[in-house]
User: Which sequence fits this backbone?
């Protein structure tokens, strides 16, 4: 790959991996749902305005519906819960639990009507991954050990990963209803998801807890970082990669991001890394690598079989 492809890939690795720590800093003095709403509405408005000004067609009502559903699942539900949970759980734990989202995608796909049944290797990867999540959370530990994970925060993160998986599957099944330009779809998802976050924040009474004078410099900078880099630069880089880089390479962000989050959490926030944490991380990340690898090989074999079948049909016609 050329340098122009590696740069956006590295940007996705580092920026999306760093957002977990940035969220932790932001929610220290900003209510989580209002923080996420500000992030998404600002970034979505910028993307939508710039794209429309540069000639992108006006989205149809059907496109707003499809993008809106994805935005509600991914941003209002999943991203909002991550911010809320990081008031109770350190960022490296949040990154690992959210990093297990591919496990939920496989599980939902297997259970839904018309979904894809997993192979033995993929099913084994799911079992290994969920075993790692259980080891990480350690729900039977009721003591005061320094690496104890808050169970309420962990439950919120599990729900966040489930919602992200559900929204991802919906987006995959309805991708033809989305705008052709991926950044336009992203901007629309942010606008709808951000509006949902604003409603949730309002209904949960966050306006009464918002004190602008109490917002620290760290929280303000973290929010600005999430808007500019986490929601605009990284997503633009990811969208470019989808059309210009090999899919297996792009997919590596799913297991590089948690590693970056763990490293930054340790270096910048002194978050604990216990032997149990490392053991669970090996299970979760290893499972995601296994699932992605097996599924890519299976997809490649199916494409090869289709090509051979087409070639055979052409030969018969001759």
Assistant:
């Amino acid at each position: 790959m050329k340098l122009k492809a590696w740069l956006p890939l590295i940007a996705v690795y580092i920026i999306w991996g760093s957002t977990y720590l940035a969220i932790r800093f932001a929610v220290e003095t900003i209510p989580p749902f209002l923080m996420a709403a500000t992030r998404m509405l600002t970034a979505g408005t910028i993307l939508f305005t710039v794209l429309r000004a540069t000639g992108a067609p006006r989205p149809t009502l059907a496109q707003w519906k499809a993008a809106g559903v994805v935005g509600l699942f991914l941003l209002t539900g999943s991203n909002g819960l991550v911010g809320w949970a990081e008031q109770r759980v350190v960022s490296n734990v949040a990154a690992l639990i959210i990093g297990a989202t591919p496990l939920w995608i496989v599980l939902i796909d297997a259970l839904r009507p018309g979904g894809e049944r997993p192979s033995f290797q993929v099913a084994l990867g799911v079992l290994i991954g969920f075993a790692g999540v259980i080891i990480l959370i350690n729900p039977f530990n009721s003591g005061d050990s320094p690496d104890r994970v808050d169970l309420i925060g962990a439950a919120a993160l599990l729900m966040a990963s489930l919602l992200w998986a559900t929204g991802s599957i919906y987006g995959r099944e309805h991708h033809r209803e989305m705008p052709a330009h991926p950044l336009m779809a992203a901007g629309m998802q942010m606008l709808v998801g951000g509006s949902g976050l604003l409603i949730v924040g309002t209904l949960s009474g966050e306006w009464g807890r918002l004190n602008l004078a109490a917002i620290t410099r760290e929280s303000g900078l973290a929010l600005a970082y999430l808007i500019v880099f986490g929601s605009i630069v990284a997503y633009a880089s990811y969208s470019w990669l989808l059309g210009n880089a090999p899919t297996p390479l792009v997919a590596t962000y799913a297991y590089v991001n948690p590693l970056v989050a763990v490293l930054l959490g340790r270096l910048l926030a002194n978050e604990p890394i216990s032997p149990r944490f490392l053991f669970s991380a090996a299970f979760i990340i290893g499972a995601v690598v296994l699932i992605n690898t097996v599924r890519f090989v299976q997809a490649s074999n199916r494409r090869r079989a289709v090509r051979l079948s087409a070639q055979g049909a052409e030969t018969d016609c001759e």
User: Anything to note?
Assistant: The chain has a mean pLDDT of 91. The two ends are 39 Å apart (CA to CA).
